[in-house]
């Protein structure tokens, strides 16, 4: 069950593109993908996105690693 999904990185990429105004950490993205609220990313706001809780079946660490890779790719595009 903890394995990655073929759609995980693509969904993170789409999520980042759609929320480019916000500054995310890999942990914050993993929390949103797992549906875990935090003071910075409350469920009242973020549960409206269809990504909220979408990857609860994927290990949290796996989601965090995928988010780290996609954040680096996303930030690299902005730096060019």
Walkthrough of the structure:
The chain has four helices and no strands. With 80 residues, the chain is mainly alpha-helical. It has one domain (8-79). Helix 1 crosses helix 4 (60-79) and helix 2 crosses helix 4 (60-79). The termini are far apart.
Describe what is shown at a glance.
The chain is an all-alpha fold and 80 residues long.
> So what's the oligomer here?
single chain
Indicate the percent of residues in helices.
55-70%
Structural class: mainly alpha
Shape: globular
Number of strands: 0
- The span between the termini is 38 Å
Number of helices: 4
| Estimated share of beta-strand residues | under 5%
What order do the SSEs take from the amino end to the carboxyl end, as H and E? HHHH
Biggest sheet layout: none
Q: Count the domains.
A: 1
Report the mean per-residue pLDDT as an integer: 90
Which regions are unreliable across 5 or more consecutive residues at pLDDT < 50? none
What Rg do the Cα atoms give? 12 Å
List the helices and strands and how they pair.
Blueprint: H1 8-18, H2 26-34, H3 43-46, H4 60-79
Helix pairs in contact: 1-4, 2-4
Jot down its keywords:
80 residues, single chain, 55% helix, mainly alpha
